[in-house]
Every structure is written in structure tokens, then in C-alpha cells.
Design a protein that fits this description.
Length: 374
């Protein structure tokens, strides 16, 4: 995708600077576009924990490069296993992280230590390239769904999305936003209702920024407004991304997704989930009982960060500040994700096509996984 007509991926390597890794600092967007230089596995782990880098597919890709950075310092078996375990534990819910580290280890364990660094960079690059191809295919498959709606509505489609599942959350294209970008580029009059997505506001900050840069019409709404819009026929479809999907089709995504699915179900609005196959966890069935939900720092709920606006202190307008939202002494809880049961999901949009949110549906697209699912 492009920023000011310059094409970027969300992670890249600088061979002129010791093969260090570059990412956009997502905690600074959209107020400033800052590029972080990551030169060690510890710096990669810090970026993942603090959400300077976020989005399930992108976390996996960056962690893969983090292991390559670690091997530059020590390529021994002991160091590789230790650093891989450290990276895999940085965030618990998104399955792509552990998938990517597992794939890296599977590739590198049979490689002699003196050859591991190059092999690690090559494998991380392959993970990135595959993510781009998968997300582009997700976009094409989701585009067919939006095109059907547009044909019925005189070329108009109103989509609601929650959190950020765009190109900044993947290596490129995005998952939930990829069909929207393609629909817009094909001339479909697509408009997006963007949930603010408290407490970190990834919708209001990142999704709105992405859509604006691409020229896609959009409107930011409070998280609690989605059901109202659906009741009044102003939402044709909901498309979200996901951090983990069970083999039975349960979906873990940003907290608040479950409530959107309930509202969509009550109002007969299709609720689609877009994901690459790397986000499917074939080892678990019941998402509510088996998916570990990350509990983040309560300060994310009790405060908000952004630029000051008038008509207050004009001299400081535009300064980025963190403002308290709750009274001192009040406790806050911050579960980062919730699980939407498969029965509320209209379909899963994958790189291989669209399927029912069920074990049978997933296996129809990924028959090679029958033994794993069993």
C-alpha cells in the first residue's frame, strides 16, 4: 500500500544497516509516521509487547525477523531455542506469532549454525511474501461478496468494521480491509462505518487513517453505535479480522467484536471474518473455553492519548498528551479480546475462498488438515 504515493510494506529489512528490521511505530500513528529500527530480538519483543507493532499476521512476520536478528548474535542451538521461546511468549492470544516461530524453528533446526542467519532471513522473507499473497487473495474472495451487495443496491455498499485489520496489521493489503480497498478501486461506492475500538482506538486511529489515505469514504462511530445503525438499515455487512480461529469456526478478535456479531445476527446483517489460514488453530475446538485471552494494562482503559484541540490552550494545540479518563482510585479491567461463537459468523473469508464457520466448512477448503483436526 502507499503513503503519500510511496509504496510500503509494514515490515522490511535494511541491508545497508546491518540487516536491521524496520517497522512503523503504530503507537504514534496517525499523529506522526515514525519508522522504528529494530536490531535485536529484545527490541522486537518490546515492540510486540507495547503494540508498536500489532495485528496478528504482522506480529508473526516481525517475530520471524526477530529470530533472525537473535541468530546474528548467537546461532547456537541453545540460543536459538531460548530466543524463540522468548519471542513466542510476548503476546498470548494471536496464533500467528507462535505459528511463525514454529515454522522458523522447523526450517532452522536442521541447518548448521554457521548457515542459520541467512536461512533465517530467507524464511522470514518467505513468510512475508506469503502473507501478502494470502491477503491479496482474501481481498479478491471478499470482493465477490461486496460486489453481490453492490449489484442489489445500485452500486452502493455500507460496511461496518471493528478494530484495525488493514495493511498496517499485516505485511500488506490487510484482511478485513482488503476487499474494501479492491471494491473501492473497482468503482464500487463503498462506505465504511469505523468503530472507534476502545480502549486503544485502533479503529479511530489506524483504520480511519488507512482508509483516508486510500480515499475510501468512511465515518468513525462510537463502539456502541453499531447496533443502532443496523436496526435502521444502514449496514449491509460487517467484516472483521481475527487473531485466532478454532477448527470449529469460533473467532477471537478485539474486545467488542462479540457484541457486533450479536447485533448483526439480531438484524439479519451478514457477519464475515477475514483471515489467512495461518490464523486457524487446528488444535482447539471451543474458543470460549480454550483460547487464552490477554489481559492488558488497566491504564489503557483509564487514559487516552491524542493531540490537544481548541478552544482551550491555543498555544499547546496539537501537542500529543495522555489524559486521565477515570477517577483516581477506580479500578479498570482490560481484556484485549473476546470470542465470537461460530453460530454468529456468516462465513470465513480465506485465501482459498469463503466457507462456513464450522469444522466441515474449514476442511472443505483445507482438506489436508483432516488428520490435524481429528
Amino acid at each position: 500500500m502507499k503513503i503519500d504515493n510511496v509504496a510500503y510494506r509494514s515490515v522490511w529489512v535494511d541491508p545497508q544497516d546491518g540487516w536491521t528490521v524496520r517497522i512503523f511505530d503504530q503507537t504514534r500513528l496517525p499523529w506522526s509516521i515514525d519508522v522504528l529500527r529494530l536490531s535485536t530480538a529484545d527490541e522486537v519483543a518490546h515492540a510486540i509487547r507495547t503494540m508498536q507493532v500489532r495485528g496478528a499476521p504482522l506480529i508473526g512476520a516481525v517475530a520471524a525477523y526477530g529470530l533472525a536478528l537473535a541468530l546474528r548474535e548467537d546461532a547456537s542451538d541453545t540460543a536459538m531455542e531460548r530466543e524463540a521461546a522468548m519471542l513466542a511468549e510476548t503476546r498470548p492470544t494471536a496464533i500467528n506469532l507462535r505459528w511463525a516461530i514454529g515454522r522458523m524453528l522447523a526450517r532452522l533446526r536442521g541447518v548448521a549454525p554457521h548457515s542459520r542467519v541467512q536461512a533465517a532471513y530467507d524464511e522470514a522473507a518467505a513468510i512475508c511474501d506469503e502473507d501478502v499473497a494470502q491477503n491479496e487473495a482474501i481481498g479478491r474472495n471478499g470482493l465477490s461478496l461486496l460486489s453481490e451487495i453492490a449489484a442489489r443496491r445500485g452500486n452502493r455498499v455500507d460496511v461496518l468494521t471493528h478494530c484495525n485489520a488493514g495493511w498496517i496489521a499485516t505485511v500488506d493489503w490487510g484482511t478485513a480491509l482488503a476487499p474494501i480497498y479492491m471494491a473501492h478501486d473497482q468503482g464500487i461506492d463503498v462506505h465504511v462505518w469505523v468503530d472507534e475500538t476502545r480502549p486503544r482506538n485502533q479503529g479511530a486511529l489506524l483504520t480511519a487513517w488507512e482508509l483516508g489515505r486510500h480515499g475510501v469514504p468512511h465515518t468513525v462511530i462510537a463502539d456502541n453505535a453499531g447496533g443502532h445503525l443496523m436496526q435502521h438499515g444502514k449496514v449491509d455487512a460487517v467484516i472483521v479480522g481475527t487473531d485466532r480461529v478454532t477448527r470449529q469456526g469460533d473467532v477471537a478478535n478485539k474486545i467488542g467484536t462479540y457484541l457486533k456479531a450479536l447485533a448483526a445476527h439480531d438484524n439479519g446483517v451478514p457477519f464475515w471474518v477475514a483471515l489467512p489460514s495461518t490464523t486457524i488453530d487446528w488444535t482447539i475446538g471451543d474458543g470460549v473455553r480454550e483460547i487464552e485471552i490477554e489481559e492488558r494494562n488497566a491504564d489503557e482503559v483509564g487514559a487516552i492519548t491524542g493531540p490537544l484541540v481548541g478552544p482551550g490552550d491555543v498555544d499547546r494545540e496539537g501537542e500529543v498528551r495522555t489524559i486521565r479518563l477515570v477517577p483516581p482510585g477506580s479500578r479498570a479491567a482490560n481484556p484485549a479480546f473476546d470470542v465470537t461463537p461460530a453460530r454468529l459468523v456468516s462465513g470465513l473469508i480465506t485465501e482459498r475462498g469463503v466457507c462456513a464457520a464450522s469444522e466441515a466448512g474449514l476442511l472443505s477448503l483445507f482438506p489436508e488438515r483432516r488428520q490435524t483436526a481429528a
